[in-house]
Amino acid sequence: MIGDFSPEEKDGFYKAVFSRRDVRSHFTSDPIDEKILTKILNAAHHAPSVGFSQPWNFILVRNNETRKQVKDSFDRERTRSSTLVEDPKRSKYLSLRLQGILDCDVNICVTYDPTKFGPFVIGRSSIPETGIYSVCCAIQNLWLAARTEGIGVGWVSILSNDDLKKILEIPEHVVPVAYLCLGHVSNFADKPDLESAGWLPRLGLKDVVFYEKWNNSNDPNWQQIRQMIISNLDYA
User: Per UniProt, what is one Pfam family of this protein (predicted)?
Assistant: First the structure.
């Protein structure tokens, strides 16, 4: 695994990045091969982590009763959050398909345990949030590995962490970071669902890159890369 990437391997990586989708529908009933699921989890476990603390755990859930309880939490939270916006946006929000908890093959709850390896973790003393950031790196590894294996992943964020802790018997000090739905899909969409639905537009790369200081979008020392960014170089 050590060494340079071939052109084909580079293309494969970018294909996974640009074709990754947050899957909420199109799940099929086909089970994920256990070897494939293990490879996906192993890729997640090899993510970078602050101070090599590896602060994640992965709770695998297939039990239907457990999943129904999680789905009930989603329904309650979706109803509650819908009151935060007015029509017509409220109606559009409620019409969106935002989870596949009962439809996919397996659910995975990814957690953060700040107590792993004791109270002192190199690099976390100045920025405590780097522990959770590390878990997010593991989630991204999992997502890209799953896409490479043809497995869809959906992150269900409309949930109560208090509910998850009770349902999954998670200790008080452990933080649920992500509740994921994994499964085979009939197809991967060309664009993210929320982009296709017109919920929000995709920003151009030029809109999110500054040079040297905040909000400086035009610096003479960065003209060449700025022009390439304006051209919106994209592998999609």
Answer: Nitroreductase
pLDDT, residue 35, reads 98
Q: How far apart, in whole angstroms, are the C-alpha atoms of residue 45 and residue 55?
A: 10
Q: Is the pTM of this model over 0.85?
A: yes
pLDDT digits (tens, 9 = 90+) for 84-117: 989 998 998 888 888 999 999 999 999 999 999 9
β-bridge partners, 176: 111
Q: In the sheet where 106-112 sits, what is the strand order?
A: 56-61, 106-112, 175-184, 151-155
**How many of the other CB atoms lie within 10 Å of CB of 2?**
3
Per residue in 30-80, pLDDT (tens digit) is 999 999 999 999 999 999 999 999 999 999 999 999 999 999 999 999 999
CATH 3.40.109.10 domain span(s) along the chain: 13-200
Q: Cβ atoms within 10 A of the Cβ of 95, count?
A: 9
Output the 3-class SS for 217-232. CCCHHHHHHHHHHHCC
Per DSSP, the three-state class of 191 is: coil
Quickly tell me which residue has 């101070």 as its tokens: 51
Q: Is the dihedral of CA 177, 183, 188, 194 positive or negative?
A: negative
d(CA 217, CA 209): 7
CATH of the domain spanning 13-200, picked from 3.40.50.720, 3.40.109.10, 2.70.70.10, 3.30.2010.10: 3.40.109.10
